[in-house]
Every structure is written in structure tokens, then in C-alpha cells.
Amino acid sequence: MKNARAYRLLFIANAVSGLSQGICMLAIPWYFSKILGKPELFGMMYAATTFIMLFWGLYAGSLIDRFSRRHVFMAVNAFGLLLLGSVSAIGFYQGSVPAWGAMLVFAGTILVYNIHYPALYAFGQEITEKQYYGRFTSWTEIIGQSTSILSGSAAALLLSGVSEGEHHFAGLTINFPFEIKPWTLQEVFLTDAITYLIGFFLIALIRYEAIAIRHQEAGSALDRIRTGMKFLKDNPLIFQFGNASYAIFVVLLVTFQQLLPQYIDQHLHSGAGTYAFAEVMYSIGAMLAGVFMVWTFRKSGFILGITVMMGITVLIYALFASSSNLLLFSILCLLVGITNAGTRVLRTTWLFQHVPNQSIGRVSSVFQTINILFRAGISSLFAIPFFNRNDQIVYAFAVCAVFVGFWMIPILRNYKKLANFKMSS
Questions:
Q1: DSSP string, 303-319
Q2: Which of 42, 78, 109, 410 is deepest in the core (most CB within 10 A)?
Q3: 173 pLDDT more than 90
């Protein structure tokens, strides 16, 4: 592998900045709910930010394909450093972070997230030999999920603190040897700003030899977006595949962000420990997928692997809707981690093989934007009072099963074409 040192620095930088993003995304909702007592304000901010993302995602893709991906990463980390550092300084000066400061950091973190991963994948494709695509996507998933677990644990410790002595979590007894006092939001933001600073310098150290050669594109950002759209228009099979293979990710985010708390309370009649354990089981499953998925389907083909993962997901959500067994629930959370992360690894590797590096950023951002639209639509559907009465939340899981099953149809219909796909341009 020609760019081994660049790989190591890229993965370390991704883990460091990913830790910062994860802590922020958990700390800010907690701040609005527990400190300010204004969860509805956070809800309005989240909806407004989601709307902005529809436009930002497409523009971000044009930036990724226009400029050096290394420089894009450096700019992203510099932005995070300045934003969190400034809001943290205001918090220390005033004694607490103002609500508008927390909102600004949350919106900025989502902006960063929506350029971070498309840029990461585009950069990875650019510096990776074709035979190592699967290795890159697998390691990205493993490190991403490890960071997710660490950021969740760190956020819980920093925001809530922990007393010395025995603590019970997800059925386990943990003896904590010392006390950790809760951190203020400005202290959390300062720590996150430092991680962005570290990420900036790590990316600055990267030196690499480009494997995929890109050419300079003239014209405005709108022209570059149109060029990316034209690529998908010329290759409609890629467009169908990208949207269909995102179906599991759509229902997964809706499940964990919206459905599970109510499902656990009203259907499983359990508490917060079950929700925390579900997150852990999901992350373990996702890490297992990162380790084994490409190896498992290296001979039979990635399209077969994606089809199998989608079929298993339909069964998983049908069981979510029909069972109230806690042990089975834990197993299903593990399996959905495998199917979602496994599909992401296989999908990204397939796209690396069939989308030129010249357009990969814009293509990824188109899929990401459509994904946001689907999530918004399904979330709005599940906000209808019907799904929130008694035990009727189970019908939301049935809808998720139907949604994934529906998107299996274009993959099954075009299975042979996808397995033997060649670009038309």
C-alpha cells in the first residue's frame, strides 16, 4: 500500500474529530432538556438545521470535488476549533453558555458532519489502490463505531458526573474508584475545540501520492453541482442503487432518534438502562460488520451481500413489531448494527469501484440529501398521534419493515445489471 502513513494519520485524525462531534451531539440536547428545560426549542432548532442541510449537502459535495480533500479536512477542523473555542470563551466569560451559543455549535457540528464523511470517503478513494477499497471502508466503520462508543461514554461521564462506589448499568455492577464532578458546557466545548486543533495538525502532516487523478473543473459551484447531477442522469442504475441501499440507514436513524425511547417504555415496559444497552449492542454489531462483511461477500459479490442485509433487516423490524422479549430485543439491536454497517461498507466499496473520484463527493452528497428528505418524511409520519397511543408504536416498526422491503425491489429487479455494471460515462 503506497500511502500507509497517510492512512494512519487520516484514521487517527478522523477518530479525534469524530470524538468531538459525538460529544457535542449528545451534550447539546442534554443542555436544552436538563439545564434550560426547553426541549421544544431544541426541536425547532433541529428542524431548521435539517432544512438547511438539504442545500448545504449539495454545495459541500461540490467543494469536496473542487478542492484538495486534505485542505477541506483542514478547513473543517479549523472551523470547528474557532466555533467551539469562541463559544467556550463566551461561556467562561459569562459563567455559562448562552442558548444561542449552544444552538450555533449544534448547527455548526451538523454542518461539519455533513462535509466530514463525504470528504473522508472521497479522500480515501483518492489515495487507495482499488484492491484495498474494502479494507479502507471496513476500517472506517470499525474506527467510527469505536469512536461512537467512546464519545457516548465520555459525554455521559462529563455531563452527569459519577460518584465513587458501585453503579448498576444494563444489568452489570461497576465499582467506580473515584468521583467525577459534572462538567459545564463551556468546559466540554473547550475540550472539543482542542480535539479539532489536534485533528488539524494531524491532517497537516499527511503526505500522499494520489492514486485517482482528478482534473480541475471550471465554472461556479452551481455548474459543478449540475455536472454531478449529469453523471447520475447518465448512470441511472447508480442513482437507483444509491437510494435503495440507503434504506436501512434511513429507518435506523429514525428508530434510534425517535422510536426506541417510546418503544422501550410503552411496549417493553423497561427503562433507560435498556436504551443504553441497545446502543451498546448496536455498536458491537456495527464493529463486527466492519471486521467481517467484505471478507464474507468477497467472492459471492457485494450486491448479494446488500440484498441479504436488507432482507434480514425486514425480518428484524417485523420481529420488533411482534415481540416484547427483552433478550430478543438485545439480539435484534446487535443484528441491526450488523445489517446497517455491513450495508454501508459494501455500498461504499461498490460506489468506489464504479464512481470516478472526480465526482464521488457530489454523488455522495446527492444521496445524503435524498436520505435527509426520506428521514424527514418518515419522522413526520411517526409524529401522528396514532403511533403515540397505547402500544401502537409497534406499527411504526412495521412501516419501517415495509419501507426497507420496498427498496429491495429495484435491487432485486436490477440484480444482474448491478453485479456486472459498467459506467456509460
A1: HHHHHHHHHHHHHHHHH
A2: 109
A3: no
